[in-house]
Structure formats: structure tokens, C-alpha cells
UniProtKB/TrEMBL annotation, chain A:
Pfam families in the cross-refs: ABC_tran, oligo_HPY
Similarity remark: Belongs to the ABC transporter superfamily.
Keywords, sorted A to Z: ATP-binding, Nucleotide-binding, Transport
Chain intervals with Polar residues compositional bias: 259-273
Protein name in UniProt: ATP-binding cassette domain-containing protein
Residue intervals of the ABC transporter domain: 4-257
TrEMBL record, chain B:
Catalytic activities: Ni(2+)(out) + ATP + H2O = Ni(2+)(in) + ADP + phosphate + H(+)
One Gene Ontology cellular component: plasma membrane
Primary location class: membrane
EC category name: translocase
Lineage: Archaea, Methanobacteriati, Methanobacteriota, Stenosarchaea group, Halobacteria
SUPFAM superfamilies in the cross-refs: P-loop containing nucleoside triphosphate hydrolases (SSF52540)
Protein name: Nickel import system ATP-binding protein NikD
Keyword line: ATP-binding, Cell membrane, Ion transport, Membrane, Nucleotide-binding, Translocase, Transport
GO biological process terms on file: peptide transport
Name of one Pfam family that matches: oligo_HPY
PANTHER family assigned: NICKEL ABC TRANSPORTER, ATP-BINDING PROTEIN, OLIGOPEPTIDE TRANSPORT ATP-BINDING PROTEIN APPD
Signal peptide range: none
Gene source species: Natronosalvus hydrolyticus
Subcellular location: Cell membrane
Membrane topology: Peripheral membrane protein
Length: 347, 342
């Protein structure tokens, strides 16, 4: 049994509720996530990637019970998370923590750092004041902050330091599982490197499991064991990290990988990136929701929604024509080797 | 040929706690039809440098030294009026991260395009409107005849940035300054905008200054790059050379901190400490407190290092001076002293 099992999860928001739209029948539902399923094993990291509005944060917010699901279940250690109550719920709230993108807004500006970190200890534990103080010192050390930072206010710290405070707060209750929602997206690369190193260290030391949400594929590739790619609320492909990057099976994954500028000049130019824009989530295209932007699309694609198919290994893909995508890449690869052989020959 | 020559340029902000020199004696030039990248981390002075070309600095900021020569004119010595009449939007235009900052929500995109075109080019309204439709088509707005009379709010973020680019290019400027033009956009839209800029640079013979903190963006479209640290331009190199043989310890560390340069789950390189407070920068090389290759007393004392030419890379670092770094075996080519020639 996996630590976290998400099964058929959907979350719909009513975006123009109220009495009048309901009476007029113009009430609209936004399907933020649709039929999302995945598992995370203890000690593993699953990356969740996709462009803005894909539904990544909503997945995190349903897991942490910020939202009730519209459909589907989230199971943690086998128990349905949205049916927990009493001490089980309390235990769940301690085991599962979340770190957000923007440390400037996720920390209370009125509280000194020490108080912010001690807050969950105060709510969830019976530790005495002295014990809490001791624990805060430990936590500061764990995230490589100085003891003196305890008495500083958020505005006195840099973005990277603040993100370490968020991580320290998340660690306060010895969690097992942390949802990291774009934890380094607001940081400079050199600061990002520190946070990523810290996250990897902590994972090893405390056997943490992560759900790592990011639109930065370089970061995802570095840190995650498995990756799930989301598009318009659905998971369109899921695979072990290496396989996903080397051999994407879904046209969207392929396009996404081609769109990311590589910090290495002279690499493949983004010629077969993604065309067009992401359609409105209020009105997703029929059939495969990627079909209006897809170069592999056929008539079938605009009518039938492809199911998320489990292929041989651990790969899942939702595309009628994934075999064409794979064949295309094989062709490209052989062309590459072919042309380089020819070049060598003529030299 | 150099289209723009920046020499010993300094920009200073007056603040309650004293003066802050955000750009310190920066020298570089931009060639015809070149895309020149300016990279560096938050607060190193990229936007200040970009804003100084057209003197679009904040109230408390001003050019405190040096020159910016474009087309025989020293922009640094011109008045606001002169810049507005002769340069802005016409010879040099600028685009920013947030397209909404450049567009007025109460006018249609057509009105804004036509206004810019008629102001700078000798064209009547009708011809300007036709030109505007052409431009919208150039930047990839579908059905431009139908969309030209729409207001900004009816376009997506990516489309707005395209429209801003259309306005910026409407007068065929020789130089476009783009300050983080794709930051915050989705990667697929970013890739489209970068392709567009590259294409337009070529077809309109425009040089581009691309300001970004994203080394991926730089690698994708720039011909040459300048790396800034704490207000100094510490390294300038052709793009391939910068990535293959970074010379400045800061550039080396910066490149080493990106995950793409490491195996999976491998520890990333970390630069110790923080960038300095620019009100009181360290003496000597501004990077010395964080540098892992300090090579002599000079690194920590006196003025900033001179700029050396090392096999085609301009680098501001004593490692390439045989008089300071005993281990250095190459030739010592000083191309600029920190004080300038005067
Ligand atoms: N509380 C809400 N009410 C209505 N719609 C919402 C709500 N939260 C999210 N949405 C919508 O659900 C969709 C998914 O949003 P979500 O924030 O999960 O995306 P995301 O993948 O995290 O995007 P980003 O990369 O921009 O953070 C979007 O269309 C969003 O506008
Ligand atoms: N109006 C101002 N008054 C005082 N200091 C300023 C002002 N504007 C910028 N600065 C300072 O000047 C330095 C350079 O800022 P600048 O905005 O040019 O950096 P940047 O490289 O563009 O950073 P970012 O990547 O965050 O956009 C910073 O230390 C900043 O705090
Ligand atoms: S000048 Fe000295 S301190 Fe500065 S980067 Fe070079 S070696 Fe390091
Ligand atoms: Mg999000
Ligand atoms: Mg800036």
C-alpha cells in the first residue's frame, strides 16, 4: 500500500454562484481537476508539472483538506482523508504539511520568526514554553538559519531565508509528507540551489515523502522520482522521471519539454514547441482537451476523450496516438544519428 | 558595427540611508542586429541599467557618470525633452515584464498603435491603421482586422505581450530593450514570444538588449551576454563561450547552481553569503567575501578589479593578472581600468 493514494479526484468550483445565475441557469462550473489519480510511496517524490491553471495547486489543496473533493478519494495510510475526525484528523494534520511559493505572504509579518515556527507546536503539542524554545532552536539549525534569526521579523530576512523559515515551520511537527507548492519559483538560482539541497538532505534524514509542484522542469528533473504532467485539470502522462524526460509519450509532454529554454546554448531550438494558448478551464474542448493544439490529432480526438492508459512499465498516458509520438521520436533520433554519420563521412 | 556604446556608466539612487550606486562604471557595446543578454540575480542592477538608456529611472535615481552613445548622440547627456522628441519609441523602445504597465486600459490597442505610429512616422491615420493591422499580424495576433478595436482586457497575457512588442516595433527602432519580457508567462507562451523576438530582430534589423535572470532564456536567444554582480558588469562573452568556459568565479558558481548541470539528486553548488548592500559595497572585488578563488590582497582591498580580456571574454577578476595571481600562466591583457581613461 502506498503512503498516499489519490483516486479519481475531481474538484469543481462554481464561479458565478448566487441566486440569479442559478435561476437563469447560467451558473457555471469550473472543473479545476478532473479524475486525477496517482500514488506516492513512502520516501519518494512525485513531481506535478503543468502550465498555469492546470490544477496543480488545487490537487495540493484537496489533499490538505483546504477543499473537499467533488468526486474521488484521497487515502493516507489507507484511510480516507476527508472522512477523518478527532484524533485521527489531528494526526493527519501533523503528518502532512505544506510549503507555498511566496514566503512573503505565507508568513505573518507581525510575528517574529521564532513565534511563527513555534505556532504549530503550541496548537498541536503539549510542549512547555522552554521545550518549544528548544525545539525552535533545533529547527532553525536544521534549516541552516542562525539562532539570532528567532528574533527577527519576516521583512528583515531575504526570500531564501524566509523560505527556510517556512520549511522549518512545516518540519516542526515531524511530518512524514510535505506538499511543496512551487517552493523555489520566487527565488534566484543560487538561492534556489540552497533550498533544493536542503530539501534533499531533509528527505534523506527524515525519510520524508514529497509532492513537488512546479512549472520548472529542470528542478523537477533534479528532485523527483516520478512525474505527473497535468493539462487543463487532468493528468495526461505519468512516468518515472528519467523515462518521462527521455521518451515522452504524450504530445503535450513532448511540446512542454521542447518549450523549456535549456541553459545550454546550441541545443535543440524550440521549433516544435506548443502552438496556441491554453483554452479556458470553464469551457474545455470536447474529446481530448489538448486536441486543438495537438499536431497528432485526428477526428477521433475531437470526439472521444482518451482514458489514462497504463502501459507496460510504470507509465500512464492519455492519448489516442501515443504510439505515433513514440515513433516520431524514434525517427528523429535515427535521423540525428544518420546525419551525424554522414557528416563524419564527408569530413 | 557598434549600435550602442556604453562607457563607464554609473547610476546612483539617493536614499534616506545614503547614496546607492546600483550601476557602477559599466562598459559594453551592442552590435548591429545583435541580441545582447544581461543576466544576474535580483538586485544586481539589470533594470537600473536598462532604464538608464532612456532615463526612465525612478525619481531619486540619476546617471552619475559615463556615456551612452547611440547614433552619434550621448543619451546620458540629453534632457528628458530631447529624449522624448528624438529617441524614445522612435530610435529606441522598451518593453517590460508586465504588459499592462505599457498599455492604457481605456484605449483600444488600435488607438494605441496608431497614436505611436502617427507620432513618430510621417503617416496619416488611415495608413497608420493599416500598418497597425500588419504589425498585429506580424506578432501573431489572429484576425487582426477584427481584434484591432478591442480593449487590452479582452486579450490574454501572452497576447498582450505580443501587442506591446508590436507597439515597441511600430516605428522600426534600431534598439529594443526588453526587461524580463517573458517572466511570469507560461513556458509555451514564453517560447513563442522568444521565437517572435528572434524573428523580428532579424526581419526588422533591430538590436535587442534582453534583460533576464533566466540563464535558459539567455542561452536560447542571445548572441552575447553580460553578467552583472552588485552593480558591476563582471563578465562579457559570446554565448557559447560563457557557458563552455565561464571565467569569473561568480559566473562559474551561478552556472553550477542550476540543476540542469548536475546529475539527478546530486548536491547543487551553493554560493555562501549574500550579495552586498550597495550603499556600502565591500572594498576590492565586490564578490570577494563570497569568492572561493580569492588570489591576492588586491581582491580584498582598493578599487574594483580592472577588466581583462581572456581569449575574447571580458572579465573583471584578478585571477587573470599574473601580477596578482601567481598561479596564472596566460597573458595579462587589461582592457579597462576601473577609473576609466580620464
Ligand atoms: N477557489 C477557486 N475558485 C474558483 N476557481 C478556482 C479556485 N481555485 C482555483 N481555481 C481555478 O482552477 C483552475 C486550476 O487552478 P490551480 O490554482 O490549481 O492551477 P495551478 O496549476 O496551480 O496554476 P499555477 O501554475 O498558476 O499556480 C484554474 O482555472 C483556477 O482559476
Ligand atoms: N528607486 C530606488 N531607490 C533606491 N534604491 C533602488 C531604487 N530602485 C532600485 N534600487 C536598488 O538598486 C539595486 C538594483 O535594482 P534593480 O531593480 O536595477 O535590480 P535588478 O537586477 O533589475 O533586480 P530584479 O532581478 O529583482 O528585477 C537594488 O539594490 C535595488 O534595491
Ligand atoms: S577578483 Fe578575486 S575575489 Fe573577485 S572573483 Fe576574482 S578571484 Fe574572486
Ligand atoms: Mg499553483
Ligand atoms: Mg529588474
Amino acid at each position: 500500500m502506498a503512503l498516499l493514494e489519490v483516486d479519481g479526484l475531481s474538484k469543481h468550483f462554481v464561479v458565478n454562484g448566487g441566486v440569479v445565475p442559478r435561476l437563469l441557469g447560467t451558473r457555471k462550473e469550473l472543473q479545476a481537476i478532473r479524475n486525477v489519480s496517482f500514488e506516492i510511496e513512502a520516501g519518494q517524490t512525485l513531481g506535478l508539472v503543468g502550465e498555469s491553471g492546470a490544477g496543480k495547486s488545487t490537487v495540493g489543496n484537496v489533499i490538505t483538506r483546504i477543499y473537499e473533493p467533488t468526486n474521488g478519494t484521497v487515502r493516507y495510510n489507507g484511510a480516507n482523508v476527508h472522512e477523518l475526525s478527532g484524533s485521527d484528523l489531528q494526526a493527519y494534520r501533523q503528518s502532512v504539511q505544506m510549503v507555498f511559493q511566496d514566503p512573503y505572504t505565507s508568513l505573518d509579518p507581525r510575528y517574529k520568526i521564532g513565534r511563527t515556527i513555534a505556532e504549530p507546536l503550541k496548537i498541536h503539542t503539549d510542549l512547555s514554553k522552554a521545550e518549544r524554545k528548544e525545539r525552535v532552536s533545533e529547527l532553525l539549525e536544521t534549516v541552516n538559519l542562525e539562532p539570532e534569526h528567532r528574533d527577527r521579523y519576516p521583512h528583515e530576512l531575504s526570500g531564501g531565508q524566509l523560505q527556510r523559515v517556512s520549511i522549518a515551520t512545516a518540519l516542526a511537527l515531524d511530518p512524514e509528507f510535505i506538499i511543496l507548492d512551487e517552493p523555489v519559483s520566487a527565488l534566484d538560482v543560487s538561492v534556489q540551489a540552497r533550498i533544493l539541497n536542503l530539501l534533499m538532505e531533509l528527505q534523506e534524514e527524515y525519510e520524508l515523502s514529497y509532492l513537488f509542484i512546479s512549472h520548472n522542469l529542470g528542478v523537477i528533473k533534479h528532485l523527483c522520482d516520478h512525474v505527473a504532467v497535468m493539462y487543463l485539470g487532468e493528468i495526461v502522462e505519468q512516468a518515472p522521471t528519467g523515462e518521462l524526460f527521455e521518451n515522452p509519450h504524450h504530445p503535450y509532454t513532448e511540446g512542454l519539454l521542447n518549450s523549456v529554454p535549456q541553459p545550454q546554448p546550441g541545443g535543440s531550438k524550440s521549433t516544435d514547441g506548443l502552438t496556441g494558448e491554453i483554452p479556458s478551464a470553464l469551457n474545455p474542448p470536447a474529446g481530448c482537451s489538448f486536441h486543438p493544439r495537438c499536431s497528432y490529432a485526428t477526428d477521433q480526438c475531437s470526439v472521444d476523450a482518451p482514458p489514462l492508459e497504463t502501459l507496460d512499465s510504470e507509465r500512464k498516458v492519455a492519448c489516442h496516438h501515443w504510439d505515433a509520438v513514440v515513433a516520431d521520436q524514434a525517427d528523429e533520433r535515427s535521423e540525428l544519428t544518420h546525419s551525424s554519420v554522414q557528416n563524419d563521412g564527408t569530413k | 558595427m557598434a549600435r550602442l556604446s556604453v562607457t563607464d556608466l554609473s547610476v546612483t539612487y539617493r536614499t534616506g540611508d545614503g547614496d546607492l550606486t546600483a550601476v557602477d562604471r559599466v562598459t559594453f557595446d551592442i552590435q548591429d542586429n545583435e541580441i545582447f543578454g544581461i543576466v544576474g540575480e535580483s538586485g544586481c542592477g539589470k533594470s537600473t541599467l536598462g532604464d538608464s538608456f532612456l532615463q526612465l529611472l525612478d525619481e531619486n535615481g540619476s546617471i552619475s557618470g559615463g556615456s551612452i552613445v547611440y547614433d552619434g548622440m550621448d543619451l546620458a547627456a540629453m534632457t528628458d525633452r530631447e529624449l522624448a522628441d528624438e529617441v524614445r519609441g522612435n530610435k529606441i523602445s522598451m518593453i517590460f515584464q508586465d504588459p499592462n504597465a505599457s498599455l492604457d486600459p481605456v484605449y483600444t490597442v488600435g488607438q494605441q498603435l496608431v497614436e505611436t505610429i502617427t507620432k513618430h512616422l510621417d503617416m496619416n491615420k488611415k495608413a497608420a491603421r493599416e500598418r497597425a493591422i500588419e504589425l498585429l499580424d506580424d506578432v501573431g495576433i489572429p484576425d487582426p482586422e477584427d481584434r484591432i478595436d478591442n480593449y487590452p482586457h479582452s486579450f490574454s497575457g501572452g497576447q498582450l505581450q505580443r501587442i506591446v512588442i508590436a507597439i515597441a516595433l511600430s516605428c522600426e527602432p534600431g534598439l529594443l530593450i526588453a526587461d524580463e519580457p517573458t517572466t511570469g508567462l507560461d513556458v509555451s507562451i514564453q517560447a513563442q514570444i522568444l521565437d517572435l523576438l528572434e524573428e523580428l530582430a532579424e526581419s526588422h534589423e533591430t538590436s535587442i538588449v534582453m534583460i533576464t535572470h533566466d540563464l535558459g532564456v539567455v542561452a536560447e536567444i542571445c548572441d552575447r551576454v553580460g553578467v552583472m554582480y552588485a552593480g558591476n558588469m563582471v563578465e562579457i562573452a559570446p554565448i557559447q563561450q560563457l557557458f563552455d568556459a565561464p571565467r569569473h568565479p561568480y559566473t562559474q558558481a551561478l552556472l553550477d547552481s542550476i540543476p540542469e548541470r548536475h546529475g539527478m539528486k546530486e548536491d547543487l553548488t551553493v554560493i555562501p553569503g549574500h550579495p552586498p548592500d550597495l550603499r556600502q559595497p565591500p572594498t576590492g572585488c565586490r564578490y570577494n567575501p563570497r569568492c572561493d578563488q580569492v588570489c591576492g590582497m588586491e581582491c580584498e582591498t582598493g578599487d574594483v578589479p580592472p577588466t581583462y580580456d581572456v581569449e575574447g571574454t571580458d572579465v573583471m577578476c584578478y585571477l587573470y593578472d599574473e601580477g596578482v595571481n601567481e598561479a596564472y600562466e596566460g597573458p595579462t591583457n587589461i582592457v579597462a581600468e576601473p577609473g576609466g581613461d580620464d
